[in-house]
């Protein structure tokens, strides 16, 4: 534009900026969203790929007729990985339950803890009942085992009923030793004994129930204990805050460790 001495030349083209089209903006948003989804689900994608790769490699190695030692060496890394994950189950359960319930209000934590306890108890009872029904209906296992060891098996397992399994669930809910519950759980077993009568010269077979401990973590008892601990800590408030902070920090550390192990 022309003018006097005080006028300055202004380029009109600098004032006219062409806005990007809606199509290009949508394309950029779509690409950005795809990248975010890929970053969020990259672990899941690698897991799925590893599963299919494991199937393929496993079927391929079957034709090589590997020895048992070679098979054990191939499965050794997986065994170590599973051991690490199993070692984190107990601290993960304890930290997540206690930290979550201790941060809620008394009424909220009470209802949530009660619902969690009822939900886990009902699912455990349903699992036990379903297992017993399926065993009675389809009789899984090799029939030759029953023919060969029928008398021995009948003495110990034939008398176990659904009521025994349900009472075992209730016993495991309230363990007498919380430390033992981390690696053992209780189970009912029937044992037959021969009782002699010297006067009559006869023998009588008496079957009695025995409650023994078997290997395996008592998850139900631990969950009940840590739910109760979290509820009490939530009701105490500031008095239990140092202990609550400990479990909150432990929860974050365990989650970080699990993420590292999974990667």
TrEMBL record:
Which segments cross the bilayer? Answer: 41-60, 80-99, 111-138, 217-236
Designated name of the protein: Amino acid transporter
List where in the cell it is found: Membrane
Q: Name one GO cellular component term.
A: plasma membrane
InterPro entries given in the database record: DAACS, Na-dicarboxylate_symporter, Na:dicarbo_symporter_sf
Keyword set for this entry?
Membrane, Symport, Transmembrane, Transmembrane helix, Transport
Does Transmembrane appear among the keywords? yes
Per the record, the similarity remark reads:
Belongs to the dicarboxylate/amino acid:cation symporter (DAACS) (TC 2.A.23) family.
What one GO molecular function would you report for this record?
A: L-glutamate transmembrane transporter activity
Membrane topology type, per the record?
Answer: Multi-pass membrane protein
Residues of the region (Disordered) are: 1-32
Organism (species): Meloidogyne javanica
